[in-house]
């Protein structure tokens, strides 16, 4: 494929290409992966595909430079959140530039970062790296960091493990050394349907689910009162909420099913699951016996729907010091939103930080955009990483 010669124009072209692929998480990302592989092939680079069980999704692990030495990872995901129900001024899958801002679904979260990394490949090849740079391109991050896990399990098997990873979620190029973990649970209430005229003979699944929702809210308020002593967090306490509720079939039927999805984002490494486990135990002790007393077939089923650990990279870790040097700044922070960084550390024992162009305030919104100036700052970061790796 023919690419513009200037770096900013290369970034624009690659971002336009990436945005044009509708990679909402319920769809295949293979056409986008094909496109990236074709681009890399023009430089004599072949990546390693890690395909999911359906054959419809794939991650890509790419090594530029020597494969027998530990290097650094630039990591980004290819999936985006849906646009349905959002009021866009532009076609969300066609890049539009206005006043230094590039509009399109995924421009900030996080195809802009992937485009920058790909745009810098010619410089990586020309530098004849002594320390390798890896590109880790994943899928289904938005629905629970799904695709990066099998890729990291493969990386963990390799003889040489990377020195560190830079995960390019939008931080306005600030170095992020920590984020909360997350644990999500689905509670399915099984009641007993009856005509609403004889409602006392039924078991109302929604009403028992409401008891759980009220308890979740009570515990959320209690968590908010316990402020972390770690002032680096933008939201300085663990959070808990009910996010999705489904139940009922008709106004005149006692509902026999209701599902409640809830999550905890915890500051502590294991806190998220500890909080949700306690809620499950409470519901089994306080709500389910009352349901079964009405009818033995009634009760609650619980299933884990999402889980990733917190990230807590030491402020004096080598990867943090390097990230600050490459970014040309000396500050660091922690954030409430989750990323794949904690899985790099947890699964493959790769020290990680989060640093990328754009603001999290733009992620998932209609008229999502990233500023061209942010992408150029990110390109400068990668340029300095290339120089660092060229020295060995």
From TrEMBL:
Pfam family, one: Peptidase_M20
An example Gene Ontology molecular-function term: acetylornithine deacetylase activity
Regions crossing the membrane: none
Superkingdom assignment: Bacteria
EC assignment: 3.5.1.16
Cofactor needs: Zn(2+)
Family matches, as PANTHER family: ACETYLORNITHINE DEACETYLASE, N-ACETYL-L-CITRULLINE DEACETYLASE
Classification via NCBIfam families: AcOrn-deacetyl, PRK07522.1
Protein name: Acetylornithine deacetylase
Source species: Bradyrhizobium yuanmingense
């Amino acid at each position: 494929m023919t690419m513009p010669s200037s770096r900013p124009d290369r970034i624009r072209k690659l971002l336009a290409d990436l945005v044009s692929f509708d990679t909402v998480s319920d769809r295949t990302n293979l056409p986008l992966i094909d496109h990236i592989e074709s681009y890399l092939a023009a430089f004599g680079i072949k990546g390693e595909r890690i395909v999911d069980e359906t054959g419809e999704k794939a991650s890509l692990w790419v090594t530029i430079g020597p494969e027998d030495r530990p290097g650094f990872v630039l990591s980004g995901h290819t999936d985006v959140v849906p646009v349905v129900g959002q009021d866009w001024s532009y076609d969300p899958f066609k890049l539009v530039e206005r006043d230094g801002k590039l509009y399109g679904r995924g421009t900030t979260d996080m195809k802009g970062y992937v485009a920058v990394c790909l745009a810098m490949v010619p410089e990586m090849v020309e530098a004849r790296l002594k320390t390798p740079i890896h590109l880790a391109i994943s899928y289904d991050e938005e629905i629970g960091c799904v695709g990066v896990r099998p890729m990291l399990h493969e990386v963990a098997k390799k003889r040489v493990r990377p020195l560190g990873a830079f995960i390019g979620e939008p931080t306005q190029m600030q170095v992020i050394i920590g984020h909360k973990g997350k644990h999500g649970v689905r509670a399915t209430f099984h009641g007993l349907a009856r005509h609403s005229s004889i409602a006392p003979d039924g078991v109302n699944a929604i009403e028992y689910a409401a008891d759980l929702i009220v308890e979740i809210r009570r515990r959320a308020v209690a968590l908010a009162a316990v402020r972390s002593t770690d002032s680096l967090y933008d939201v300085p306490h663990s959070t808990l909420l009910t996010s999705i509720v489904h139940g009922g079939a008709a106004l005149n039927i006692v509902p026999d099913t209701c599902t409640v999805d809830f999550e905890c984002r915890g500051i502590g490494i294991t806190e998220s699951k500890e909080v949700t486990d306690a809620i499950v135990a409470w519901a089994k002790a306080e709500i389910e016996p009352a349901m079964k007393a009405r009818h033995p077939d009634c009760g609650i089923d619980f299933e884990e729907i999402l889980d990733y650990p917190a990230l807590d990279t030491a402020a004096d870790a080598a990867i943090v010091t390097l990230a600050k040097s490459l970014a040309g700044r000396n500050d660091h922070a922690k954030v409430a939103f989750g990323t794949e960084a904690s899985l790099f550390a947890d699964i493959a024992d790769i020290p990680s930080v989060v640093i990328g162009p754009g603001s999290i305030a733009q992620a998932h919104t209609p008229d999502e955009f990233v500023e061209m100036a942010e992408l150029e700052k990110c390109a400068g970061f990668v340029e300095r990483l290339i120089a660092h790796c060229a020295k060995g």
